[in-house]
Every structure is written in C-alpha cells, then in structure tokens.
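Exam revision sheet. Question 4 asks you to relate a sequence to its structure. Input first:
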Amino acid sequence: MAELTGADKNDLPDDAFAYIEPGGSKDASGKTVPRSLRHFPIHDAPHVRNALARAPQSPHGAAAMPKIKAAAKRFGIETAADDPGRSMERVPVERRYIDSPVECRAETNGRRIGGYAAVFHTPGRPVTSRNLGGFVERVLPIAFNQARMGGWSGAVCRYNHSPDMLLGTTAGKTLELEIDKLGLNYTVLPPKARDDIVELVGRGDV
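Answer key, structure tokens:
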C-alpha cells in the first residue's frame, strides 16, 4: 500500500473517507476542517483493505463500516458473511526484517540471553513488520524514549509474550535494556525453571 503523506491525505475530498466526525466546518474547497475529523481513506483498494482491518478496533468503526463495505464491493474485495469487517481476499505476507541474532552467554552469575527486542526503521535501513492485513508497523528511534526516561519502570521480558513464561524484569534487576543505533537491546537472566529456553537459544533453535 502506498503510504499517504499528511499533505496527500489533506488533499483528498471528503467522499474519499468512510467516516467524518460531526462538528467541523468546510473550507473554500468544500473539505472538512479540521482534517483530523476525517477517518478511513477508501479511495483505492489497498486503503479499503486497511480500513477493513482497522475499523473493528476503532470507536468510529461501526459508523464507518457501511461506506467501507460499499467501497470493498466497488473494488471487488470480498468480505466474510459472518464478519463484515474481515477481508476474505488473500493478502501476501511481506517480511522485511534484518538479521537480529539472539545469543546465550555464560557468566559467573548465570546464563544470560541477549538480543534486540525491537529494531528501528530508519530511511537508510527500512525495517517493517509482516503485512498485518493491508498495513505494516514500523518502530521509530523515538519509540522508547518515554519508557527510558522513566527508568524502564515495569518492563518485563517474556517468552512468546506468555505471562506464564516470565524471563526477567527491570524491577528484579534481571532485565537490562538500552537503546543504540540499531534498536532496543536487552539482556535477561532467566530463572533456572527456564533453562529449556536458554538451551534452545544456545543451540540456535530460537
């Protein structure tokens, strides 16, 4: 999907959006101001797919969905009968990650796992998530500034995001975090109960 710049989005007419919040006014060109009241561009097929994926999580989604579905029909995008907000069109998965190895180090106070929790997207090194249904996510270098200023308070490291697979915490001083040019670097000292994960990392399976 070609990304819209702020100027490009502002130039779109009102009928290119699935929902416009009430309370605005019209400028000389007949477009709603402020522009922030306009939601879900549906002027082309990629943005319709994006709207189908995003609308269910938006407070404006229910109001926008009739126009999104109409646009989907216009562009030949099928939606599920039991879930009108879910696109049935197969979207190719796009992966553009750079190598970010995880390593296991033996130290006097235990075996630690280290690597990058996130890798930054920069103009010289484009890094995105997989295709999430018509859009991708990028992590900018400023993403963790607030957490860093707060001393990484409450930060935890888990295996597969599972609350039952805790590896370490900043509060317990078993998780260290720092930001460098590549991304968010971490080092964690897992408990002995997680020696299986340490072994998987050491063998190169993870």
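Marking note for examiners. Helices lie at 6-11, 45-54, 61-74, 145-149, 195-203.
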